[in-house]
Amino acid sequence: MPADATRLLTLRPEGLYCPEGDFHIDPTRPVARALITHGHADHARAGHGAVLASAQTLDIMAIRYGEGFAGTRQVAEGTVTLGGVEVRFHPAGHVLGSCQIEVRAGGVNAVVSGDYSRVPNPACAPFEPVPCDLFVTEATFALPVFHHPPPGEEIARLLASVQAFPERAHLIGAYALGKAQRVIMLLRQAGHDAPIYIHGALQRLCDYHLEQGIPLGDLRPATMDKAEAKALRGAVVIAPPSAFASPWVQRFADPVIAFASGWMQIRARARQRGVELPLVISDHVDWPDLTRTLRELNPGEFWITHGRDDALMRWADLEQRRAKPLHLVGYEDEVE
């Protein structure tokens, strides 16, 4: 790798910083200028002086934080020049509006991937491989044990359970941005045309996906009283994980508790959460896709933001690849 490629990015207490362009990427504290990869709260925070992001990410931040979430905001379109740096946004395949951020100057480039997935996601644009000299990656599921099954197989297990237990509602824990809409779309692709009931915390973001032309089908509020909830036998109900620790869940009579997450591959986690039907559905790369991406892009060096960097550093050593863990504080593993 050219010696000056790593000069494009450095690490500050606020997070990744580009000195030549004078901006941060996904900073964990308010800064003067922030470039945001996607709308999850561990990457997109309020209070920055200026924000540059995809139009959908800006909309999602406004939904979550209010219209005044930043001093100014700019939609990332084409090439944007900041200082002496060219910046381009490329799809990341993670959630609606998610992007990788490419930074280019002096004939070299770096790509900050944010969170990303190589598995087709009907709720967002697919990951776009961008050749680069420096690649900044997550490592949420960076252990060889994490080999996620095809999402369609997990949805088939869900629908088989719905058919086997028609007298019980199926309550699915799914995060409000991305996972909930993905589960809904996967159900629709599998031919499940029945109404799907959603917790109130999911309503606005589901409405936004509908506004963006993503066909989620017949969605109905799961805000009924206890008597009405008991009538939802055989229905699919989606709620954020926090709802399962609230009185809301008690209105359902003997529901099947499910949870959609890459972590459900670890059965002990499912048991700890009282999950009867673990659904291994992730919006992050698993071990095979993570290592395949690194081999495909073949950057001169890669940096690891968070996750299981120990295993990935060992892999890099065996592959004779240059790598560095950043130990970024403030990013979470598949949560909002």
From TrEMBL:
InterPro entries, A to Z: MBL, RibonucZ/Hydroxyglut_hydro, Xnuc_lig_assoc
Domain of life of the native organism: Bacteria
Keywords for this protein: Ligase
An MF annotation (GO) of this entry: ligase activity
Gene3D superfamilies in alphabetical order: Ribonuclease Z/Hydroxyacylglutathione hydrolase-like
Name assigned to this protein: DNA ligase-associated DEXH box helicase
Annotated organism of origin: Pararhodobacter aggregans
